[in-house]
Amino acid sequence: MTEIPDNRFFLELIPMRPDERIDPEVVGSYLRGKIPDSAGTPKILQFNGGRANLTYLLQYPNREYVLRRPPLGPVAPKSHDMERESRVLLRLHKAYPLAPRAYLFCSDPEIVGAPFFVMERRRGIVIRESMPERFKGQPELFRRMSEMIVDGLAELHGVDPKSIGLEELGRPQGYVERQIKGWHSRWEGAKNEDVPDFYRMYDWLLERIPPPQRESLVHNDYKLDNMMVDAEDPSKCVAVFDWDMCTLGDPFIDLGTLLSYWVQPSDSQMRISLSPMPTAQPGFYTREEVTKRYAEKSGLDLGTILFYEIFAMWKSVVVIQQIFIRLHRGQTQDTRFADYNKRALGLLDVAWELVKDWDGG
């Protein structure tokens, strides 16, 4: 059995799950000579924290790399796009230092069972639903973390795509409408029951799309657990991950996504329980403060931002359902996902509460 290093800088590393195992000999043979310091066969451990793409640590004597591939089983069209993610990271790190550098993309499914890419290894910690014990009860730290999260997003939206060769990454015109229709199609491929309220919200969204104020790079899932922070000072960001849906479009899609995850003490227990971020703790910004700081950093008018928050909630219903359906169909053995269909419906209820705020505003 592979030994797991006793080191707090390693991110939830586990031996590879039996159904998600990749062959170190095959991986090592393929990578040999293609990336620096890749002689020999790497030791491979698996990162345990992710919910979708599978991520592995490749340990060579003089260097470590991270390998990313899509989840097991069929995936929705245009999702978990390793070629896209590697193309973004080959260029983006030059203008946005929080983006790790990619080294290689492989389209051959014979190596690890699917297309994959290899990127640099960054060191730090990933904070998910709760704060590590040693950081709890520090409201000033949480305030600085709030600023770090918002500022990192505004910085990304300030990057000129043309300056790094990413001006052809997407089609900004009609972007939000395509997003809404695309996530509707993904729901059709992942549903296991009819949910009329899902379709009602689909119609509601299509009828209210605001005109965009700016075109920018869009991460499409920007949140705290897609970031790595310094292990000693989590108000310092080390990296932003999960760029497989990065494109060009309306930057408010990203801010709406962040706001949909950003819970605060006044929220219902349902909304707090569904969030992957621990921002309900005293000291973290409220959503109003997040919006205000982003407006100050970006210079944009955020009068329609609630629409984007509602869309993000509705989109997350699909994401959660897609994860559940892989377990339901036997495409993964990861039992963490057993109640995800209930989570999806709970999130849809939260989204309808936001619609009431919009309609009453």
Any overview of this molecule?
The protein is of the alpha+beta class. The protein folds into two domains: 13-120, Phosphorylase Kinase, domain 1, CATH 3.30.200.20; 133-360, Aminoglycoside 3'-phosphotransferase, Chain: A, domain 2 (Alpha-Beta Complex). It is built from ten helices and ten strands. It has helices spanning 24-31, 82-92, 139-157, 175-190, 196-206, 252-261, 269-274, 287-298, 305-328, 340-360, and strands at residues 13-14, 43-47, 54-59, 64-69, 102-106, 116-120, 216-218, 227-229, 237-240, 247-249. The strands form three sheets. A six-stranded antiparallel beta sheet has the order 1-2-3-4-6-5, with helices on one face. Strands 7-10 form a two-stranded antiparallel ribbon. The chain has a two-stranded antiparallel sheet with strand order 8-9. Helix 4 runs antiparallel to helix 5 (196-206), helix 5 packs antiparallel against helix 9 (305-328) and helix 6 crosses helix 9. The chain is globular.
In short:
With 361 residues, the chain is of the alpha+beta class.
Summarize the SSE layout with pairings.
Layout: E1 13-14, H1 24-31, E2 43-47, E3 54-59, E4 64-69, H2 82-92, E5 102-106, E6 116-120, H3 139-157, H4 175-190, H5 196-206, E7 216-218, E8 227-229, E9 237-240, E10 247-249, H6 252-261, H7 269-274, H8 287-298, H9 305-328, H10 340-360
Helix pairs in contact: 3-8, 4-5, 4-9, 5-9, 6-9, 9-10
